Amino acid sequence: MVRQPAQQMTRPSAKLLKWYDRHRRVLPWRAAPGDRADPYHVWLSEIMLQQTTVATVGRYFAEFLEKWPTVNDLAAAKLDEVLHAWQGLGYYARARNLHKCARVVAGELNGAFPGTEAQLLKLPGVGPYTAGAIAAIAFNRPASPVDGNIERVVARLFAVDEELPAAKSRIRELARGLTPKKRPGDHVQAAMDLGATVCTPKKPACAICPLSADCAAFAAGEPETYPRKPPKAERPTRRGYAYWISDGNGSILLRRRAEEGLLGGMMEVPSSIWEEGDWQSDKALAAAPLRAPRELPGMVRHTFTHFHLELRVLAGRSKGKPDGVWCPVDRFGDHALPTVMKKVVRHALNHAG
Ligand code: SF4
Description:
Blueprint: H1 10-23, H2 39-49, H3 54-67, H4 71-76, H5 79-86, H6 92-108, H7 117-120, H8 128-139, H9 148-157, H10 168-178, H11 184-197, H12 216-220, E1 237-246, E2 251-256, E3 267-268, E4 275-276, H13 281-287, E5 290-295, E6 300-303, E7 308-318, E8 325-328, H14 339-351
Parallel strand pairs: 1-7
Antiparallel strand pairs: 1-4, 2-3, 2-8, 5-7, 6-7
The protein binds iron/sulfur cluster.
C-alpha cells in the first residue's frame, strides 16, 4: 500500500530545494551553487560511487583527475593503468567499462558527453540510474535517478509497504512524480543529500527534516522500518586453493583472469575453482600445477557481495611451463591485483619462507 504524503506533490520538492540551498554537501565532483557541473566529473564520480561510499571515492576521484584531467586523457591511458588506479574500488568490470566509455566519448563524440538519458544509455557501463544521474546533475534534465538514498527517502515519504526489490518500480514512479521542472538536477542532489545526512538508514533525524510534515512514514511512526526488505539470506562460504608457484629464482607466477565474471581481467595468483562444501585437500594437491606442493599454515578469508571465500595456499616450484607472468616478489605493486589476491600475496610472503 502507498499512502500519499499530506501535502501537494510539489511541496516536498520546494522544501527540499530550500533545505539544499542551506545544507548541501560539498563534494569534490559537485559544482559550486549556480555553476554548471562538468559531465566528465559527474560521470566519473557516479561510476565510482556504484557500490562504494562517498568517503572512499573522494581520494580515487582526486587521483583520477590528477592523472587524467579530461575524458580524452583517460581514453588515451592504457587499460592496465586504469585498472591499477582503480585498485581498492572493487568490481573491476566497472573500470574496464569506464575506460571503454572514455574511448567512445573521446573517439566518437569529440570528447563531449551527450546530454539526454537515451543517448547516455548507449555508452558502455552506463545503465538507467547513471544515465539519469548524469542527465539531471550535469545537464539539468528532468530525470529521476533513484540511488539507495533516494529510494529510502521516497519509500518513507510515501510509506511504501511493498518489499524491495519488488517495490523498486513503484518507488521510481513516485520519485518521478516529485521531480520539479525547475532545478531537477539540484532536486536529485538534494534528495541524495537528505538520505545521506538526515533520512539515514537506522536513525532518521525526522525532527530536523524539511519533509517531516509531508512524510507518511513519520506520521505512521517507525520510519526506520522503510524501505521494507525481506529477511537477509545467509551468505554461503566457498572454499578453494591458491597456488603459490615459484620459478626457483625469486619470482611468483601471476595470471590474468578471464574477461567475464568475477574480478574479470584482473591479475591473480592462480587458484582452483571456488566451491561451497568441504575442503578437498587430496583433490587440490593432485590438481596443483606444482612440484612437491606443501600447504602453508592458516588461510586467507575474504568476503564478496554474495559469498564468503576461504582460500588455503599451496606452495611449490612450477610444474612444466605455465601460462602467465613471473613476478619478482618485490614487484607485486606493479600489477593490478584485486584485494583478495593482495591478501593471498601477503599471506604467502609471511608463511612461504
Ligand atoms: Fe526521512 Fe524522517 Fe524526513 Fe520522513 S521525516 S523523510 S523518515 S527524515
